[in-house]
Amino acid sequence: MREAFPPLEKVPHQLLYLIYGDKDVYRREAKFSILTALAQLQPDESLCIRVLTDRPQDYAGWPVETVPLSEQTLIQWQGENGYHHRRKACAIALGLTLAEKTLFVDTDTLFLGSPHRLFSMITPGRYVMDRFEYDWSYVCNRADYEKLARCLQVHGISSTNSFKLYNSGLCGVTDGDAALLEKSVRLIDEWTQGSFDIHTIEQIALSFAMRDQPIQEAKKFIYHYFADKNFFHAMQKHFFARYGEAFHPELPELCNEVPRSKPVPSTWERLRIKWKLRKKRGGMKKVGRALLFGSAAPAHPYYEICRHEWWESASREILRWDSVTQKAFFGSGKGWPKHLPKPARKDDQQAIIAYLRKRIDQHS
């Protein structure tokens, strides 16, 4: 039995989010993304923002409309094969009934330009996606893509007649695209039968359904930080700790104080670090790079908050090593490892080693 959703006015344009669960980090992600969209609007512009969520109370007082989702709906949207990213395709399909143009946005997305620039790119039969990632021919022979390759052969697709795969972190469609989303959901169900090895089947299905249509990339107007979440989560936590999560009119402008990139050293510093690590190989080079990048991050209040995420990256690499290699890395003393260049900030030496030892001890 399908759930009856509360009636909403059909609008020309809408920014659409899907968020469920009670994890603070994803709620902050969504709210910060919304703030970056609002911060890009001109004084005379307005924006309809809708949030599909099982926790509408989290957005009370925010300039958004919520569409409550029950547990039953979330289970139904996941499908019989238990693929939770299927929910995104179902959310977009529902969104088509609420607006003439829908811009679906993953919560880990920052707006660098006005959403209206993206709405202007969406027309019937012309779509907007986050960015082009690769051609099917690039991955079709990889072991984890073997099952999907067999499924695509049924549709006449091989490495010789490939199609482009897009990241669906942002997806712009019109209310005339119901059949497109229905096809995407059917493909997801077909490709996830039995088991599935690829977590991005949803965006592959959408890309396949769109393959004969013109698609424009949104990457000039947004930053989708899916690969750097830890850095942005740390900065967003600090931002909302400073200003609170209750919405007030100054919040969109205040969000501009948070950098739109992770803390990366200057070009000159990166070259210096590369030179210092030129003789290192494999895991040792990865660890050295992460530690030195964290120490050489640009001076900025929010970068100070998340520098340690570089150290965390190094600790994850060290945890992959066996105990003998770990012991050799730290050596017998408590000082900086002799086989690694020292960090730019002298005070970081003890702080980094203490951090790494604590992380290793927690997993021993």
From TrEMBL:
<protein>
    <recommendedName>
        <fullName>Nucleotide-diphospho-sugar transferase domain-containing protein</fullName>
    </recommendedName>
</protein>
<dbReference type="InterPro" id="IPR029044">
    <property type="entry name" value="Nucleotide-diphossugar_trans"/>
</dbReference>
